[in-house]
Structure formats: structure tokens, C-alpha cells
Write a structure and sequence with these properties.
This protein is α+β, with helices and mostly antiparallel strands and about 210 residues long. It has helices spanning about 1-5, 20-25, 55, 90-100, 120-130, 135-140, 160, 170-180; strands spanning about 30, 35, 65-75, 110, 190-200, 205-210.
Length: about 210
């Protein structure tokens, strides 16, 4: 799904479609991660301008508003984590951001999820409550997270296929989507976008951003 979206992004590093067979035939880096499960190494940059709602309304570009933010921290590194598939910091971050924004998961039109590995995307989808724990794999099947699906994810290609800019491109993509300027990869009638971020050893820390137009 991420590679399919990257193929529609002129600013993406990887623009060759991949299949499940391509994934399975890619080199094993460390079991169970194949090469195509792992994010890119990239040089690049991204920037955002944050100002008051009043000032934003007088500027040239359409404003996108910050509706909710959250963060969560686990008191351990990954090597001594209680679980490798469930993280309270992630859940708390999501809960706090949704509460601040006055939104529910069903209000989210697209998600730009920090995808340093395919694994981390699946864990976040589960911990956020889009599906039950252990059902992330089934959740993303049949085009559900592709453009036109129930929850388009990483519409720019993400860290796996666009570029690894420490998650900044996830924010700029969400802003572009809410402004409606993404062309062939535009999510129709996008009003609310979710952006996530991870830090430390995978899920040592986690952040949530909710944007709306």
C-alpha cells in the first residue's frame, strides 16, 4: 500500500510497485524482517509554519488547524519491555489527543503513521483501536489502507517508500491532504488527519497529532 502511494508521489524515493511475492523474495535482514519491511535511508528536509488561527486566516495558503496532541512514554527500552506488541504509551498518547480534539477514531479520514518497520505500523493500528490486538494483518488486507479504502494510510509512501525524514514528511503530507492539493493521491473530502511518531527504541516514546481543515 505504501509503495503504491509512493508511485503517485513525484517526491518519493521508491517508485517501483511491489507485490507480496517481491517482499517474500527480498533478502532476510533479521528474522522476521525482510529488506522490504524496513524503512529507507534518506537525505532531505521538511518544514512547517505554526501560527495563530487568526494569523493563518490572513495568509495565502489554506489554513490547517491543530486540533489535538498527545504523547506517551514507557518506562523501559525495547530490550526489557513487558510486551513487544502492546504499548501503554501509544494508547495514552492516542487517548489524550482524541480527547483534546473532541474526536473519535471514526472521524479520521486518513492516517500518516510512523512506519520505520511494517511491524510498527501494525502495532499502532491495534493500539489506537482501529482493530483488535493481533488483527492488524487482517485489518490492512483487501485495500483497506489504500487510497479509496476505509482508512488511507501513508498517502505519500511513508518511511518505507517515500523517504525517512524522521516523520516530518508525515506532517507535511497531512497538511497537503487537508488542503486538497495532492493530485492523484488525494483523499476525497479529507477533513481530519492523524499523524503519529515514535522515538527511542521503537515505542519508548510516542506522539499523536490530529489536524483538521
Amino acid at each position: 500500500a505504501c509503495r503504491k502511494h509512493a508511485c503517485l508521489n513525484s517526491n518519493a524515493q521508491m517508485k517501483k510497485p511491489v507485490t507480496i511475492e517481491d517482499h517474500q523474495n527480498s533478502p532476510m535482514v533479521i528474522d522476521p524482517f525482510h529488506l522490504l519491511d524496513i524503512c529507507l535511508v534518506s537525505d532531505g528536509g521538511a518544514a512547517v509554519l505554526v501560527t495563530s488561527a487568526e494569523t493563518a486566516g490572513s495568509l495565502k495558503s489554506k489554513p490547517v488547524f491543530i486540533s489535538g496532541v498527545g504523547e506517551g512514554h514507557n518506562a523501559y527500552h525495547l530490550d526489557n519491555a513487558v510486551s513487544l506488541t502492546e504499548f501503554e504509551g501509544t494508547k495514552n498518547s492516542a487517548k489524550n489527543a482524541l480527547k483534546m480534539a473532541g474526536l473519535e477514531l471514526g472521524d479520521i479520514d486518513l492516517a500518516e503513521i510512523y512506519d520505520c518497520f511494517t511491524y510498527t505500523m501494525l502495532v499502532q493500528l491495534e493500539d489506537y483501536g482501529f482493530c483488535r490486538k493481533g488483527e492488524g494483518g487482517a485489518f490492512v488486507e483487501n485495500g483497506r489502507i489504500e487510497l479509496g479504502g476505509d482508512l488511507p494510510v501513508n498517502t505519500h509512501g511513508g518511511l518505507l517508500s517515500q523517504a525517512h525524514l524522521d516523520g516530518m514528511a508525515h506532517i507535511t503530507e497531512a497538511v497537503k491532504q487537508l488542503r486538497g492539493v495532492c493530485g492523484d493521491r488525494q483523499v476525497k473530502d479529507a477533513e481530519v488527519a492523524l499523524v503519529t511518531g515514535n522515538g527511542g527504541h521503537f515505542f519508548t516514546s510516542h506522539s499523536t497529532l490530529l489536524l483538521r481543515r
